[in-house]
Write a structure and sequence with these properties.
With about 525 residues, the protein is of the alpha+beta class. Strands 19, 22, 23, 24, 25, 26, 27, 28, 29 and 30 form a ten-stranded antiparallel β-sheet that branches. Strands 3, 5, 6, 7, 8 and 10 form a six-stranded antiparallel β-sheet that branches. The chain has a four-stranded antiparallel β-sheet with strand order 9-13-16-17, with no helix packed on it. It is elongated.
Amino acid sequence: MEKKKSNHKKYKFTYIKATAGTLFLCLFFLKGYTPYEETGENFFHIQVNGRDVGTLGDKERIDELLLQARKNVVADSDELVFMTADMVVVGEQVLWGKVDTEEDVLNRMEETLRASIRETLHRSYTLKIDEYIINLSSMEDVQTLLLAAIDKYGNDGKFAVEIRNDGDREFGVLTADVVATSALEDEGWQSNTEAGVQNLIAGIQGEQIQEQREDFEDFELGIRTMNFADSVEIVESYLPESQLTDLEQAIGLVIMEQETPSVYEVVAGDTLSEIAIKVNIPMDTIVEMNDQLEDVTSTLQIGDELLITVPEPELSVARVEEEYYEEIYDADIVYIENDNWYTNQTVVHQQPSAGFRKVVADVSYLNDKEISREILKEEIVMEAVPKIVERGTKIPPTYVRPISGGVQTSGFGRRSAPTKGASSYHKGIDWATPTGTPVYASCGGTVVKAGWGSGYGYVVYINHEDGRQTRYGHLSKVLVSEGQSVKQGDRIALSGSTGISTGPHLHFEILINGTQVNPLDYLNR
């Protein structure tokens, strides 16, 4: 009996040993566990952006999985995605350990990367119009905006926008042209040779039609040509959504008129009222914009530059329209040049009379502003009578201040008589100056009086080539004689206080056609 118990214990111990050994061997072959090998690190913990995403036993596969995860995150997007992808791998050597499937690790990597996206740059298009830049989300938006710019002027489908590669620029830069829709349709089915022949034939036919248009009904009215007046460039780019402009807003910014500062240079014959009509800005507004102008009566000089604000769109459109109209018109003025007269001398020999005509013309526009017009056909219903004017060609003489220094004490016009016997209507200008101050000829001419002049005391009168006369009074000494020719700036007398006078001064007059005028209106300096 004792022997049986002993054998039973022996068999039990052997069974336990066999079972334990079997289980130990299974640990090396069971799926999901890394067998123990004396080869160094064989168990790898993976972190992406500080988050555990699993463990694997093959280190080489870890980098491949991260690359695949990044591709998967952006696979369904055309956008440029910026994300954080910092991976840390910690390896160790273990006897056994449970590893994750590659699919689970890949899924966790993707989830972590999506959570770490910093910024998404959208595929977009930058539209540059000269120096103006606007960003749109698609090429369709670019096309729609450019088409809206030409539709603003009554396009009616005759013209379209063609976007093409800019041959003068590096690869990737596009430009835009306005083309006739009929030309685009032809390009759809014609070869280059066929299109060239067709265009040649069309050109010849067009010339023939131009020659044959004898009646107003023969003209095809409307827009003849159209194109962008500004440089247009389009470049593909990637931008954050915050830098993109909504299409409706972009159309408003680009094609609606904006207040654009500009400079107007005064030319011969300009007045402030005429400039206001030319630039379509009220005179008061022009005065407000220009500090050098005191009011609407300010004098303008040729070459003066005036700041004006002209409403213009960012994208300008040039076009030529064939127009029919009926109008009352004036004939051009007919001038007869007279070399013996001064330019300020004119005589009207015939008064004008307006005429009436029917016209077809090519009118060139920049946006809504007319630039020029060419009359193609004209039918005079009632002929206009021109104005005929004879005018001088000689430059008239100039007038300068007759003394240096002095203080103006009395102006031209009505005044209280300064002393008994003096006039209450002053016919010249008085400058107070010490007795003996030199007096100069305001303009070259011939002395017609030099001596005593009653209430004026000693005087000098000079007749000038333009028919005017200057007078100098209350002199202390006369230095010229009657009949003597003098040049502008010659010394003719010394100032004084002779005649009816309240003190030393020079009295100066300018007479036109025998009548005194305000000298200050005619002095150059």
